[in-house]
DNA sequence: TTCACTATTTAACATATGTAAAAAATTACC
DNA sequence: GGTAATTTTTTACATATGTTAAATAGTGAA
């Protein structure tokens, strides 16, 4: 997936504006297990997944809880850093070797103030992330873990294969034992 | 709270740009119990609460579940309508007589394409809503209902007074009986 | 104040989920 | 291919929360 495609998928940009952003991008790769973003740290870059799969997790009383998975095309961001220049909640761990497009937040913010198209691209970007987050929240509040597990199986069957069950269980908000029971019933 | 104050709190605007937005705003009032936004409907306006308190809820198997409360200064929006021009999840019910600033979504979108300051205002607006939504999601995933109830008591003591307990229980994701038990333990 | 209505709490019981630990299955490596 | 290491499932038990229903408290109207 090229950076141009990813940018256009968020909000179509004129060639000139698009190149202003694309020029800022650096391609970077890291091995499985690498921690790309760190909790309680102000991050200065955002990333777009070119290849691979990652998880966001936070520590709660010593055991970590996964609250997001990211794959090809997804943005990997500490929203608190990006939006408020504050420390974020999440560690981002690479579940496979990954390649990212890296973008310095400050570079992007400069463009927001200079180019109205890029400002609107940034608006659409935030709006789309907002919708995704709202959907996660509503699904979590309204649907039981088993249904959300079925959704995951349906929408991201590869993810369920590629990711250890314990991470998926904590993502669903149940224990691994409970998820195992659920899976047994589905058989 | 004036509309100018609310706009500036989201992202400070130059007087000229601010007036472009302020001119679009219409003040509207409705009685307690009125349904301001309807689920499964594409909404064409967004609202900012000048006075009063509202709740967002969705129907689940016949009983409604509250997932958001809005008060003075808060935006009342069907995000799905605003961002994607699609039907939203939520009914918005007025828990008291309320006054809103109303803004047509299409009017605002026109300005996004014409004025870079307003485009950046729209970006900041989405970004801030995104942070709020993310915080709600993380709090819901990481903290037990009782702690979230304590937070609510601390951050919005008036809300706990003004809103029936059943709504608060469903907002917390527990039954009213369970919330009552929790409250009994706090005494 | 009294009555009617609504909201909240309490009680009794059923059930689902968590915890801890062991068993089984799967994967990785020599 | 065999052994160790890891992951997943199963078991047994404890506990918290849901359900239903009844009791109590609170509120507003006449």
Folded structure, characterized:
Two copies of one chain form a homodimer. Chain A has a domain at 3-105: Jelly Rolls, CATH 2.60.120.10. Chain A contains nine helices and eight strands. Chain A has helices at 3-10, 15-22, 79-84, 105-114, 116-142, 145-155, 157-162, 165-172, 176-186, and strands spanning 26-30, 35-37, 45-51, 54-60, 63-70, 75-76, 91-94, 98-104. In chain A, the strands form two sheets. A four-stranded antiparallel β-sheet of chain A has the order 1-8-3-6. Chain A has a four-stranded antiparallel β-sheet with strand order 2-7-4-5. The mean pLDDT of chain A is 93. The A-B interface holds A 58, 60, 65, 67, 79-80, 82-84, 89, 112-113, 115-116, 119-120, 122-123, 126-131, 133-134, 136-138, 140-142, 173 and B 58, 60, 65, 67, 79-80, 82-84, 89, 112-113, 115-116, 119-120, 122-123, 126-131, 133-134, 136-138, 140-142, 173. The first copy, chain A, binds a DNA duplex (30 and 30 nucleotides) through helix 9.
Distance between the termini of chain A: 36 Å
- Please tell me the CATH architecture of the domain at 3-105 in chain A by its name: Sandwich
* CATH level-3 fold name of the domain at 3-105 in chain A: Jelly Rolls
Low-confidence stretches of chain A: none
Strand line-up of the largest beta sheet of chain A? 1-8-3-6
Summarize the entry for a quick read.
With 187 residues, the first copy, chain A, is α+β, with helices and mostly antiparallel strands.
Strand and helix map with partners:
2 copies of one chain form a homodimer.
Chain A: H1 3-10, H2 15-22, E1 26-30, E2 35-37, E3 45-51, E4 54-60, E5 63-70, E6 75-76, H3 79-84, E7 91-94, E8 98-104, H4 105-114, H5 116-142, H6 145-155, H7 157-162, H8 165-172, H9 176-186
Antiparallel strand pairs in A: 1-8, 2-7, 3-6, 3-8, 4-5, 4-7
Helix pairs in contact in A: 4-5
The structure holds a DNA duplex (30 and 30 nucleotides).
